[in-house]
Amino acid sequence: MSDAETLKRCSAVKGCGQLLPLDAFYKCVNGKLGRQANCIQCLRSANSILEDTCLYVMSNSRIPGEYKIGRSSHPYERATDLQQSHNFNMVVHAIFDGLGYREYDIHCALDAFRIQGYRSREWFAGSLVDLLQVVASFAKPCQTFTSVGSL
Ligand SMILES: [Zn+2]
User: Fold this and answer.
1) What are the residues facing 55 on neighbouring strands?
2) Å from CA of 11 to ligand 1 middle
3) How remote is the CA of residue 17 from the centroid of ligand 1, in Å?
4) CA of 115 to the centre of ligand 1 (A)
5) What is the pTM for the complete model shown?
6) Which of 12, 47, 63, 72 gives 17 a disulfide partner, CB atoms 3.0 to 4.6 angstroms apart?
7) Which residue ranges make up each domain of the chain?
8) In whole angstroms, what is the distance from residue 56 CA to residue 74 CA?
């Protein structure tokens, strides 16, 4: 194999610009784009500020079967903000501690469930169990999983 097939340069736009072995890069989850533009090391340092953010799964109490999946350091405050001055409650179904930094990859993996046609790209339609299985596949084994509300 040539170097072109085994090495990849980390994008210098947001990363180190180094030529590195392919396994220094995460595969893009949707499989279409090959490897990610920046090496794992660069992603980690960029994401380290996000490591204390949660990945939450919540829904609008008036729209069953649709879920907002996103990242926040304070998911309950986020839920309260969202329902402020509206005629619905946001129901928090699950919070994955420290998983917020994988939001982009989780959204890629959930692409088939994504609700099209809205400005917000963090709403997904499907069974909560199916969605949670995808999200949980990104969690580290030691990560706490808090289930709130009923399925
Ligand atoms: Zn890099």
Assistant:
1) 71, 96
2) 7
3) 6
4) 33
5) 0.64
6) 12
7) 7-48, 51-147
8) 10
